[in-house]
Structure formats: structure tokens, C-alpha cells
Specification:
Blueprint: H1 2-34, H2 39-43, H3 50-54, H4 59-64, H5 69-90, H6 99-127, H7 133-162, H8 164-177, H9 180-183, H10 203-210, H11 215-224, H12 227-242, H13 247-275, H14 278-301, H15 307-334, H16 341-367
Helix pairs in contact: 1-6, 1-7, 1-8, 5-6, 5-8, 6-16, 7-8, 7-13, 7-15, 11-16, 12-15, 12-16, 13-15, 14-15
């Protein structure tokens, strides 16, 4: 019962991160295009998420200043409150007249959410034993998938109904409300966070991760394990556009069907890893990842492309991606050093982000040849 309460707390924290990020990442390109910004300028919005790639740089500061459960909670509360205040501040600006102020505040809000993520991940590592780490990672992935579905789907519809200034205060309020379960989060036996040596963060905090014995096998695994799924996902929207599907149809296929399948697969994957060894889970989950890549290759070269064949492929792709995410994050938690939980987990997630960026770029080059 205690674990269920903990899992719900982390689900709330992860979904609170994702919904505003998904909303801004979806709505800003739409607004900018409506206001006739160039495609080159709109393309620069990819840099909005740069704080999430660079967050490893300040992750040691979170670890070094966290000596108790209360310290981690203070990091999470303060970061999330700043996140909410930034979202609220954005509501007072009209993008048409103050686009750069809006973008600056969005970047600032993403820095706050990235900091919250560091502390939340560290607390997740410390709160669950090896057997149950896959379950908290299910909450992380489910929060991400559900947040993406709400942020890029439901909120986009509400934006068209309510407008910018009316919607964002409610979004800021939601971010604050999502913190409520954390108020009741307790360390029953007082052993959650071990005492650490008090010292300043340094570059060795980052480099130390790579000095661990055998860690490069994990680095290669992180970079390559679901690279095929990420590459396929990156080309899916352009493929659907090329075959005549409207934005609304694409939103239903990917934003509702795809993320729903990913959400369910993440939950199932967490329970499966709990029963299986890490190695067996890696092998078993790799099979649908491979099959999804093969399916889309056959689809674009041999099979008829229609709604039925696309839904089958999307289900297979998002399902395999959801399960693969769990095994990647769970093994990442296994490879953290004591006292550096936030730093080491953040480094590993950044490796997967960078790998995904390179794979998406490579997939674009490969797709152009078909």
C-alpha cells in the first residue's frame, strides 16, 4: 500500500513536468506559423528543450546539497513553484507583440522543470529497491506519455476555445496541485538518504560516472538500444503528411492511439521487468523494437499504406518504444553511484536524448533515399 502511494506521487510529479512542455512545444510552432514567421525561425524552437540536454551540468549541485529527504523535497517544491510562476507570467504576454519575452520565459520554465526532474529522479532511485525500480520507471514513462497526450492534444483544443491568457493560469495551478502528494511523502525508517560528505560540486562528479568499471557497456546500450524506434518515430509524421493525412488525423493516430498504447505498454513493461531478470528483459523487449523497424520498412516498400496498416504499425512501434523505455531507465537506475543518484541518472538520460537526436537526423537522410 505504501508503494502505491509512492508510485502515485511520482506519477503526479512526472506528468506535471510533461504537460506544459508538450503544450508549449506544440502550440508555439502553430502560433508562429500563423503569424508568418519563417520556417527557419520556427525550426530554431528545437533549442527550447536545450535545458533538458544540458541539465547534467547542474545535476551535481542537486546531489551535493541534498542530505535528507527534506532537501530533495525542497528542490522539487522550489523548482516546481518557479515552473508554475513562469507559466503564469507567460499568460500576461501577447505572443504577437512580445514573442521573444514569451520564448525567454518558456526556456526559463524548462530550466526549472529540468531541475525538478533531476531531484525527482534521484528521489525515485532512493525510494525503491532493485525489485521495484521498474515500477517507478513505469510511472515516469506513463507520466510522459499521458502528459504528451494531454499537452499536445486536449490543451491544444482548449487553447483554441479559451485563448492563451485564460488557459495558462489553470495550467500553472495544475503544476502546483500536482505537488500535493509530495507533502505526504515520508521516509518511514529514516534510511532513505544516507549521510554524505559535504563538499562543493565539481567536474569530477560528472567524470566519475564514466570511470566506473564496465560502465561503457551501459553507455553503448543506452545509445543503441531503442535507436531504431526513435529513428522510425521521427519520420512517422512526415510519412503521414506525404500520404495525405490531415493534421487532425495525424493527431488522432499519434497523439491519442500511439501515446495510449505507449502508456499501457509502459505499465506492462514495468511489471514484466519486475518478474524477469534485467538481461532477459533487454533481450525480450528488443524483439518488438526490431519487428517495428522491419514492419515499417516492409510497409513503405511492399505493403499497401492505409489506415489499417498504419494503425498496426503505430501500435507495434509505440508499444515497443514504451517497453524499451522502461528497461533503459531501470538499468540506468542500477548504474548510479551512491550519493550521485541525480547526476548519474541524468547523464544516462542525456545520452539517450543525444543518441535520439543523431538517429533522427540519420533517419531523415535514410528516408530521403526511398
Amino acid at each position: 500500500m505504501q508503494n502505491k502511494g509512492k508510485l502515485f506521487t511520482f506519477f503526479c510529479l512526472y506528468i506535471a513536468q510533461t504537460i506544459p512542455m508538450s503544450f508549449f512545444s506544440t502550440v508555439l510552432p502553430v502560433i508562429m506559423r500563423q503569424q508568418h514567421f519563417s520556417l527557419e525561425t520556427i525550426g530554431m524552437l528545437q533549442f527550447l528543450k536545450l535545458p533538458w540536454v544540458l541539465k547534467f551540468l547542474w545535476s551535481p549541485a542537486v546531489d551535493r546539497t541534498s542530505h535528507s529527504l527534506g532537501d530533495y523535497k525542497r528542490w522539487i517544491f522550489s523548482s516546481e513553484i518557479i515552473y508554475a510562476v513562469a507559466i503564469l507570467a507567460i499568460s500576461f504576454f501577447d505572443f504577437h507583440f512580445s514573442p521573444y519575452w514569451v520564448i525567454a520565459l518558456v526556456v526559463f520554465s524548462f530550466v526549472a522543470s529540468a531541475t525538478q526532474d533531476i531531484a525527482t529522479d534521484a528521489l525515485a532511485v532512493l525510494s525503491f529497491d532493485r525489485k521495484n525500480k521498474s515500477l517507478v520507471n513505469s510511472m515516469q514513462s506513463m507520466g510522459s506519455f499521458a502528459g504528451a497526450m494531454v499537452g499536445s492534444g486536449l490543451l491544444l483544443l482548449l487553447y483554441h476555445q479559451l485563448g492563451w491568457s485564460s488557459l495558462l493560469p489553470f495550467l500553472a495551478l495544475f503544476v502546483v496541485i500536482a505537488l500535493v502528494p509530495l507533502l505526504f511523502f515520508k521516509d518511514a525508517n529514516g534510511s532513505l538518504v544516507q549521510q554524505k560528505e559535504v563538499s562543493k560540486a565539481s567536474v569530477n562528479d560528472l567524470l566519475g560516472f564514466f570511470k566506473q568499471k564496465g560502465i561503457w557497456k551501459q553507455v553503448v546500450f543506452l545509445a543503441l538500444y531503442y535507436a531504431g524506434a526513435v529513428g522510425t518515430l521521427s519520420m512517422l509524421k512526415p510519412m503521414l503528411v506525404d500520404h495525405g493525412y490531415s493534421i487532425k488525423e495525424i493527431g488522432v493516430m499519434l497523439g491519442i492511439v500511439g501515446t495510449s498504447v505507449g502508456c499501457v505498454a509502459s505499465l506492462g513493461g514495468g511489471f514484466m521487468i519486475r518478474k524477469l531478470s534485467r538481461y532477459r528483459a533487454r533481450v525480450i523487449f528488443a524483439v518488438p523494437v526490431l519487428l517495428s523497424a522491419v514492419y515499417f520498412y516492409v510497409l513503405v516498400t511492399q505493403l499497401p499504406i492505409n489506415t489499417a496498416t498504419l494503425h498496426l504499425g503505430i501500435t507495434l512501434l509505440w508499444g515497443s518504444y514504451g517497453m524499451a523505455t522502461i528497461v533503459v531507465y531501470t538499468t540506468a537506475m542500477d548504474c548510479v553511484r551512491k550519493g550521485y543518484e541525480g547526476t548519474d541518472f541524468t547523464i544516462q538520460t542525456v545520452i539517450t536524448h543525444l543518441s535520439g537526436m543523431f538517429m533522427a537526423a540519420g533517419a531523415g537522410q535514410l528516408a530521403a533515399s526511398f
